[in-house]
Amino acid sequence: MKHLAALYKKELLENVLPFWINHSKDEQHGGFFTCLDRAGNVFDTDKFMWLQGREVWMFAMLYDKVTQNPQWKEMALHGAAFMEKHGRDAQGNWYFSLAQNGQPLIQPYNIFSDCFAALGFGALYKIDPKPEYYRIAKETFDNILQRRNNPKGIYTKNVPGTRNLKNFALPMILCNLSLELEHILGSEKVNEFIPEVLEEVMNVFYQKDTGLVLENVYEDGSFSDSFEGRLINPGHAIEAMWFIMDLGVRLKDETLIQRAVKIGLDMLEYGWDKQYGGILYFMDIKNQPPQQLEWDQKLWWVHMETLVFLAKGWQLTGNEACKAWFEKVHAYTWEHFKDNEHPEWFGYLNRRGEPLLELKGGKWKGCFHVPRALYQVWQALEKAPAFAEQPVVA
Amino acid sequence: MKHLAALYKKELLENVLPFWINHSKDEQHGGFFTCLDRAGNVFDTDKFMWLQGREVWMFAMLYDKVTQNPQWKEMALHGAAFMEKHGRDAQGNWYFSLAQNGQPLIQPYNIFSDCFAALGFGALYKIDPKPEYYRIAKETFDNILQRRNNPKGIYTKNVPGTRNLKNFALPMILCNLSLELEHILGSEKVNEFIPEVLEEVMNVFYQKDTGLVLENVYEDGSFSDSFEGRLINPGHAIEAMWFIMDLGVRLKDETLIQRAVKIGLDMLEYGWDKQYGGILYFMDIKNQPPQQLEWDQKLWWVHMETLVFLAKGWQLTGNEACKAWFEKVHAYTWEHFKDNEHPEWFGYLNRRGEPLLELKGGKWKGCFHVPRALYQVWQALEKAPAFAEQPVVA
Question: How many CB atoms lie within 10 A of CB B2?
């Protein structure tokens, strides 16, 4: 495992981060290009706020946690300056995307733009404690809480009252965001907040009968027999389970960690493609045809997040199934997603594991899941044996 | 070609229509189920207005054009009654979808619901001339024209002014809709209307330099180097070209027909998958990665509409390339999309031509492209030799 930890560290520092430093900076207009082809050439200049916030977070977090590399701090500041100047509408909502020059392009219909902006500015405040960064992170977080029961606002197409569903993504991300922003929100507020999001993830979206996590349920928590209600996204639930393990460490709650490991392993077993290997993107809990035509594709983030889940599960519990699955998913991921001829990793494979798109970054893939997972797995595997001697929890 | 005409006719009358008659009628709440699995079982009960309107049109049109089968008229009336009762909001816009019982589910953000409602009620008025059907078709068509410059209305997420694009789909469908509604709108109105939509399709979205048709251009017709601006949908453009050929026949304009044949053949050559056969779903004119993850899939409607285009092209011009391509696309389509074990045809194949979803109907596939194409090809191939002796145009 030490050897593997070094492999993940090397891939992060020598392959993936240099790719983003070399190719994603827009020196002319500020902010980051994320639409980068196989070799790193820019193929589209739109600026997606999700990905701007995530890249700011990535470099600030690594500067804070790994080493005070001035280039990393400069990257974070570069992205944040562009976001601060152009990213929000008059009400402080973050646009979904901007044109290269910062002109707003797509309205703030998507609350995850706000989540990743808060994440980015929160991390930046840790390495450069300007009151402005604190204020943006705090105000954005407060705005997310205000919008959370109607996150799409005026852009929702649902007729109210007919099928009021709630979605798994927001409580799931709030599990992670509340920990990441503890220095902004204060521990007391986070302590108040945690039980509520935990309840949502572990008791409302998690289904006792099947052992699976649904993406959408009725507001009262019951099952909706509709395309949205039947939807399963194995990678999403597995990612959530490592957020829950982090909460378990924070709360020193071993039972919670054990439950998260069990749920994540069940989702992985369910989502694993028995025919071609890899983890399927979307499934239907009643085994009906999903509406997502990309259901059978293999996505980078699904596999990266699963590696984090398994490495943490192994680190924190010593569960042998985590280790065995880690080896299997590691082999699949490095064989199919890593590009041996050019830097960074492929994002989208077809069911057989062949590249579907050769891009290294796009509208949804930026400097986030690959480097975050490489960092998290490196850390978890380095700590794993120490934990075996001295458990974090219990 | 006579033998082929009989094959298409038989498939329509003995396989495809009975499938929808037997499985799509909701006897309890009215309207049509369209989410039908491989064998015809209902797997989801939502009612999508696009598909309700299309199924009404299909049965009414066949009753009008093929034979006065009372079962077909009954199907059309059954769907129309449900649409009339539940389908519109207070302003007369057609909802995108309803729950099984008719409760509105998704708001009228999509103007194509209105297009297919107008199509359906227009055809119904031909076989059952109730003033109510006339009124609904007419008012819906007028509403489409009113909304056409901002078809998504309040549901649009684009910030006005930054990148004002217009989309190919609406002018393209209006080419077809104006002919289908000539008995409602009057010939004078249609004559006024045709030059405008023809100009859009044949001179604005069609690009002289590349010979290809774009899905989105700036309002002034210029090229937008963005995901939307670079997008090519070969099947969409090919379908448009048979609408244009119908307009050519209506206008007795042989040059227009010849141009449509040339453009359609160029799009087909461009969109044909040289590696695995079949026609790709989405492409990027600059050969960059498209944002649609389903770009490499093979969709039923793309292939069905291409067969119509080729059969009409052959019928109207005797172009040998149309015949050769017809044989090639016919072979691919019947081999991969037709289900030899159960009725109706598959809708979604992966790049290799294997079924991606086994459904026969869903949120977007209903009683429309397969039966319409079987009817159109049957008619075109039956007429083809007659045309060779006595050209329709010139």
Answer: 10
